[in-house]
Specification:
The protein has 254 residues and is an alpha/beta fold. Helices cover 43% and strands 15% of the residues.
């Protein structure tokens, strides 16, 4: 009897770009890919923090380099990627949340969120995919989206709008680039404990709302995202594209 074998989760020989990689979820994703054998480019706006992270990676024996970059600066993204070989893996973890009641939405805040979460994500995906297409290579492209891309939330109309848009463009890009062997997916976390979410977790009313909605009874940690990203990057997810991988503790199961 010929038994099937599980496809490898290893990423040896592959090049990965992780944006928003200076802290939180992005840093965790970069660690996960490096542990699986990928050579990882850590990208974010804070050059000094990136260099510290790269030094820590190299101390672990992982292949890593830094690329200071603002994903919202489309011209800078284009120029930076044009100067580099194509990336086999993209994890776009750069994102911004500005919360307020919808009737109090500031147009400037709306633009800031949309410029990074939607417009920036779109053109980053375009640039990475374009380089792969030109090289005749396949790849795995991911955006760290949110459970809020599938539901609504208190004071989160702008954020929800930006993340719902990400889900739509992910599906369209997956259809367009699938014949070229390029997979496009999102990872949709629940509330994850990071430096950026400290303000939310400092609000007892919000914490009560979060704990009531998460069916597994706890908030997320960065480590909860890491395995999902390795799976989608690897051959184990070779037939997975155009979808959202929910890491939400059951929030959206209702």
């Amino acid at each position: 009897m010929n038994l099937p074998r599980t496809p490898s989760f290893r990423l040896d020989g592959r090049r990965a770009l992780v944006t928003g990689a200076s802290s939180g979820i992005g840093l965790g994703c970069a660690v996960a890919l490096a542990e699986a054998g990928a050579r990882v480019t850590l990208s974010a706006r804070r050059a000094g923090v990136l260099e510290e992270a790269v030094a820590a990676f190299r101390a672990e024996g992982w292949a890593a380099d830094a690329l200071p970059l603002d994903v919202a600066d489309i011209d800078a993204v284009r120029d930076a990627l044009a100067a580099r070989d194509p990336y086999d893996i993209l994890v776009n973890s750069a994102g911004l949340a500005v919360h307020s009641p919808a009737v109090e939405t500031d147009p400037a805040d709306y633009d800031r969120v949309a410029d990074l979460n939607t417009r920036g994500a779109y053109f980053l995906l375009r640039e990475v995919a374009g380089r792969l297409v030109a090289a005749g290579k396949g790849g795995s492209l991911m955006t760290i989206s949110s459970q809020m891309a599938h539901v609504g939330g208190i004071d989160r109309a702008v954020y929800c709008a930006s993340k719902h848009a990400v889900e739509g463009m992910t599906k369209a890009m997956a259809i367009e680039w699938g014949p070229r062997g390029i997979r496009v997916n999102t990872v949709c976390p629940t509330f994850i404990r990071t430096p950026l979410t400290e303000q939310t977790f400092a609000n007892p009313e919000r914490v009560a709302w979060i704990e009531e909605k998460i069916k597994l009874g706890r908030v997320g940690e960065v480590e909860d995202i890491m395995g999902a990203v390795v799976f989608l990057a690897s051959d184990a997810a070779a037939l997975v594209t155009g979808t959202a991988l929910m890491v939400d503790g059951g929030w959206t199961a209702d």
